[in-house]
Design brief:
The complex is a heterodimer of chains A (155) and B (753). Chain A is an alpha+beta fold. Chain A contains 6 helices and 5 strands; from the N terminus they run E-E-H-E-E-H-E-H-H-H-H. Chain A has 2 domains: 2-75, Beta-grasp domain (Ubiquitin-like (UB roll)), CATH 3.10.20; 83-154, Orthogonal Bundle (DNA polymerase, domain 1). In chain A, strands 2-1-5-3-4 form a 5-stranded mixed β-sheet, with helices on one face. In chain A, helix 3 (83-90) crosses helix 6. Chain A is globular, with a radius of gyration of 15 Å. The N and C termini of chain A lie far apart (45 Å). Chain B is an alpha+beta fold and 753 residues long. Chain B is built from 19 helices and 32 strands. In chain B, strands 12-14-10-23-20-21-22 form a 7-stranded mixed β-sheet, sandwiched between helices. Chain B is globular and about 85 Å long. The termini of chain B are far apart. The chains are: A alpha+beta (155), B alpha+beta (753). The interface between A and B is large, with 66 and 79 residues. Strand 2 (9-13) of chain A pairs parallel with strand 2 (25-27) of chain B. The complex binds FE2/S2 (inorganic) cluster (FES) (2 copies). One FE2/S2 (inorganic) cluster (FES) is lined by residues 36-39, 41-46, 56, 58 of chain A.
Chain lengths: 155, 753
């Protein structure tokens, strides 16, 4: 039995400690917002936050998350009101939508570290997240918009 | 008309995740608390009154619109209900949308593909909205005792101005549901639309950005097991023997067995592919356990040899095809292309006397273009849920064409079609791949065998190496010019594995007096199928690349050259069977010329390429602006012009075109699947290069031709013309013409040389 703290809640789970965090989230805890895209750290669909850092949960053993704070897309904000979520809606970014949770989770770390990212900063930070539908331009714009919202909120 | 029972049960499984309180310790075990089905729509409780198959209204005025067509990112969940809401005069802000079940009687053809959703549903959905509005008006008129013509509607309200009476649609929904559905209602004028032609946000946007269960992989069912399949490592191989002793010892593993897809002599439907007919199935409790246990399998494979495949339906009726057993290799395929290209081929169209024209030509230009297999690489790997019971079955997952899969499914599991419930989840991409039902059949056969609900899951490697790929193609163009550099003849001859990409009656056919189109095919065991604008994607690439080179040889501007040809097609076409409208073609070229500032000197700093194409009923032209960045070509800007008739949801339509442009650049530059002895060489994204955000343009500027023509689709049409515009820009950038996809591979190999 291991104990995980996910989105500020504790869970006791009986699982092989080598299981990737991705599958624990999806199949043991029923948080399916975190997606399986490649399983080999190539696409970013599975990004979650481990103590605030973006990690690819498909290659992160659940044992690494024990005693740490895990945040998934479901716990990113209270009422879908993270600036990124609002900006994603405002720009109507999604097509199929499958990659978008991972995109937002990657972007959230960027925005925390860099309040005023340039397009170049965004490209650098987001190059690990594939969007097969090609919504990259909207992703960029949504991050810029979220950064602006975030700056305004702070004032 | 029937009273619809309330549907709360669909939401039930969500409860398991909402009971988790802050700081509370909750133990979750697999299989606990999961009850049937994906939650689709908001489904409030209460009675739903059905007014046509597409509209349900509660007495408290909640209007639910049923989206009939599977959603794979083209945004039909939003755009199709918008059409109903328009004619219904429903308040869009208060409408809820739900994905419909598979029901061809109530919900029409239900097919996502061919960019056909809009075309198929435009009229039926308008008629449904208008009919329901009339039923509500009748109900109000009867209740109020006033003439029906005096009742008006606005934003889900019924009004009678003279008497000052009003009521909600909900108030009259139960009465309206008893009124026969009227036919032939007058539809609105395009000018008076206030939902359609206005940008509406994706109705599932909030769910997507908050991680709600929407996709096939998210689907849960009580007692559901997970299955994976081990398929042969190469096309042309089959399962010989296996030893699962170690696998069966692994935790969570329930069963390992051999599963045949089609028994000998089974008549496959037109969309039933057969990549590998015998599969090794591993069933267990969780995905990770099954993934792990697969690694312990000891399997031997053997060459399959030539096989017979029986197909029914389709264009040719019943056919029997011999599938060659060869283990194919990409380099050898390219050699075969040259060999076949030299042989006589099937004539597809002939105008005038091309042979004589070529004999008399002052100059002949001949160019050959090649393109590789492409994998769809939908972001959500293939998967499907099935629960096959003795007397009925439930299947659920990502699926483009339920109606095409159902007959085969019914035969395979030996149940009548009306005992099979098919649910379509949101798809994490489709691009044509999910029109082919093999993975549903696999899931259903596995469920039938193990007598349990099961979800079949492909890993990314399974998905990439067990594909139904875009075929590999080659096309040779020849043009004959006279001494004055006039184009006097054109000859196009193409082939591929297993089909060619020649559309003999498309532009520029009809614009040249002497014209010959020919095609040939090489049969193969590599399964191929529809991939975003099938056939058209490469047809457009080769044609538009050649026209660009031809324009240069003739000393003409590439846009003006195309416009000249189109003028000929309009005024004095050659032949009668020309599958395009010259005016609409011209209008997108003129629009892109204007909007891109084609002749503006300030744009000279870019290497510019243009292309236009018509397929799947819409016209699109692009101008791409390329620069060299860190030694690699980079598309910095794109200007696009489209004519798809009435644009239902403008911002979403722009999103579609942006996405197709990015996808087109990615596939033109990087896309390609190669084989060695039948084995796919790219197994995951570290080997199959996908376009990433840093390679996407900074700007894509989209414009629509404004007209009132009935709408056509946008999923496919913007994709094919990207290839030619990118290749032509690369020529401007480097001074070299490129003939082989993926272009960056050719660019890098030339640079090395
Ligand atoms: S699923 Fe983890 S990076 Fe792709
Ligand atoms: S929206 Fe489909 S993969 Fe990104």
């Amino acid at each position: 039995m291991i104990t995980l703290n996910i989105n500020k809640k504790n869970y006791n789970i009986d699982v092989d400690p080598n299981t990737p965090l991705l599958w624990v989230l999806r199949e043991h805890i029923n948080l399916v917002g975190t997606k399986f895209g490649c399983g080999v750290a190539q696409c970013g669909a599975c990004v979650v936050h481990l103590n605030g850092e973006a990690v690819r949960s498909c290659v992160t053993k659940v044992s690494r998350a024990v005693g740490q704070k895990v945040v998934t897309i479901e716990g990113l904000s209270e009422n879908e009101n993270h600036p990124l979520q609002k900006a994603w809606i405002e720009n109507d970014v999604s097509q199929c939508g499958y990659c978008q949770a991972g995109q937002i989770m990657s972007a959230a770390v960027l925005l925390r570290e860099n309040k005023n990212p340039t397009e170049q900063d965004i490209d650098n930070a987001m190059a690990g997240n594939i969007c097969r539908c090609g919504t990259y331009l909207r992703i960029r714009d949504a991050i810029l918009l979220a950064a602006e919202m975030q700056r305004k909120e702070k004032k | 008309m029937e009273n619809i029972e309330n549907k709360q049960s669909r939401r039930t499984f969500m409860k398991s995740s909402t009971v988790a309180g802050g700081g509370l310790f909750l133990s979750f075990t697999w299989l606990s608390g999961f009850v049937t089905a994906v939650p689709v729509g908001e489904a409030p409780s209460g009675d739903w009154y059905e007014l046509t198959g597409y509209i349900k209204i509660t007495p408290d005025n909640i209007i639910k619109l049923i989206n009939p067509n599977p959603e794979f990112g083209q945004n039909v969940m939003t755009s199709l209900p918008m059409i109903v809401a328009e004619e219904l005069d429903a308040d869009w802000q208060k409408v809820v949308v739900e994905m419909g079940p598979h029901d061809n009687v109530k919900l029409g053809p239900q097919f996502t593909g061919g960019s056909n959703s809009m075309r198929m549903y435009w009229r039926p959905l308008r008629e449904a909205g208008a009919a329901a509005r009339q039923m509500l008006k009748e109900a109000a008129a009867q209740t109020w005792g006033v003439p029906v013509d005096e009742v008006t509607t606005k934003a889900s309200m019924l009004l009678h101005e003279k008497s000052g009476r009003s009521g909600t649609y909900g108030q009259f929904s139960s009465k309206a549901a008893t009124i026969p559905v009227p036919k032939g209602m007058k539809l609105k004028e395009v000018k008076s639309f206030n939902v359609v032609r206005n940008s509406k946000k994706n109705v599932e946007g909030e769910k997507i950005i908050s991680g709600k269960p929407l996709f096939g992989l998210d689907y849960k069912y009580e007692g559901m097991l997970i299955a994976m399949i081990e398929h042969p490592p190469a096309f042309g191989m089959k399962l010989k023997d296996f030893d699962a002793t170690e696998t069966l010892k692994m935790p969570g593993i329930k069963d390992v067995f051999r599963q045949t897809l089609y028994e000998d002599g089974f008549e496959q439907g037109g969309f039933d592919t057969r990549s590998f007919n015998e599969l090794l199935v591993v069933v267990g409790k969780t995905t990770w356990e099954v993934m792990n246990a697969r690694k312990k399998l000891k399997v031997t494979w053997e060459p399959i040899g030539d096989t017979l495949k029986n197909t029914m339906g389709g264009r040719n009726g019943k056919t029997e095809i011999t599938v060659p057993g060869e283990l194919e290799t990409t380099t050898k395929q390219l050699e075969k292309f040259k060999e076949y290209a030299a042989k006589p081929a099937q004539q597809l169209r002939r105008d005038g006397d091309p042979e004589t024209a070529f004999k008399n030509a002052a100059q002949v230009i001949e160019r050959t273009y090649n393109a590789p297999f492409l994998a769809h690489n939908c972001m959500e790997p293939m998967n499907f849920f099935a629960h096959v019971m003795d007397d009925k079955a439930i299947v659920a997952g990502p699926l483009q064409a339920p109606g095409w899969s159902e007959p085969t499914l019914a035969k395979l599991i030996n149940l009548p079609a009306d005992k099979i419930e098919i649910q379509m989840t949101r798809m994490g991409g489709g691009f044509g791949l999910r029109a082919y039902g093999h993975y549903i059949y696999e899931a259903a056969l596995i469920s039938k065998r193990i007598k349990a609900p099961v979800k079949l899951v492909y890993t990314r490697e399974d998905d990439m190496t067990y594909g139904i790929y875009r075929p590999t193609y080659t096309t040779t163009y020849r043009a004959a010019l006279d001494a004055n550099k006039n184009l006097i003849a054109l000859h196009v001859k193409g082939g591929g594995i297993p089909e060619h990409a020649i559309h003999a009656n498309r532009f520029p056919a009809g614009t040249i007096d002497n014209y010959l189109a020919e095609g040939w095919r090489i049969p193969s065991n590599i399964t191929t199928g529809a991939f975003r604008a099938p056939g058209s994607n490469f047809a457009a690439a080769s044609e538009q690349m050649f026209l660009d080179e031809l324009a240069e040889a003739m000393g003409k501007d590439p846009i003006d050259f195309r416009l000249e040809l189109l003028k000929r097609a309009k005024e004095n076409p050659v032949g009668r069977n020309n599958e395009y409208n010259a005016d609409r073609y011209m209008s997108v070229l003129q629009l892109v010329k204007e909007k891109s500032g084609w002749n503006n000197s300030e744009n000279k700093k870019y290497s510019r390429g243009v292309a236009a194409y018509f397929c799947h009923n819409s016209y699109v032209a692009h101008v791409v602006d390329m620069v060299m960045r860190d030694g690699q070509p980079y598309v910095e800007r794109v200007t696009s012009a489209a004519d798809c008739g009435i644009v239902i949801n403008p911002d979403a339509a722009i999103n579609m075109i942006e996405g197709a442009v990015v996808d087109g650049i990615g596939n033109a530059f990087y896309g390609g699947l190669t084989m060695v002895n039948g084995e796919v060489q790219q197994k995951n994204f570290h080997q199959y290069r996908m376009i990433r955000i840093n390679e996407a343009p900074k700007k894509i500027d989209v414009h629509f031709v404004q007209n009132e023509i009935d709408p056509t689709g946008l999923g496919e049409p913007p994709f094919p013309p990207v290839f030619g515009s990118v290749a032509s820009a690369m020529y401007k950038l480097t001074g070299k013409r490129f003939y082989n996809f993926p272009l960056i591979k050719e660019f890098n190999s030339l640079n090395k040389a």
